[in-house]
Design a protein that fits this description.
Blueprint: H1 15-24, E1 29-32, H2 33-40, H3 47-51, E2 60-66, E3 71-76
Antiparallel strand pairs: 1-3, 2-3
């Protein structure tokens, strides 16, 4: 029996955030960058643009990212 090593598990750096959204949000909503950091345990950075493509697997999509207001708008699929 093989024990899975951490490198064998395909986890996204934003899995904790996606799970938080799936478990706690419905419809359309907005989170500040600070709220995203609290939920994910990570500061939002440019990699968020790449990782946001995983969110439809959790039933949501990113609608708009506002760098000016430091917010992200989400939409439930």
């Amino acid at each position: 029996m093989k024990v899975l090593e951490s490198e064998d598990i395909d986890m996204s750096k934003y899995d904790q955030l996606w799970q938080y959204i799936k478990d706690n949000k419905t419809g359309d909503f907005e989170l500040s960058f600070d709220e995203i950091e609290k939920a994910s345990g990570l500061p939002i950075d440019h990699s968020f643009l790449r990782y946001k493509k995983e969110l439809p697997d959790y039933g949501f999509e990113v609608k708009k990212i506002s760098l000016k207001n430091k917010t992200v708008k989400f939409h439930q699929l």
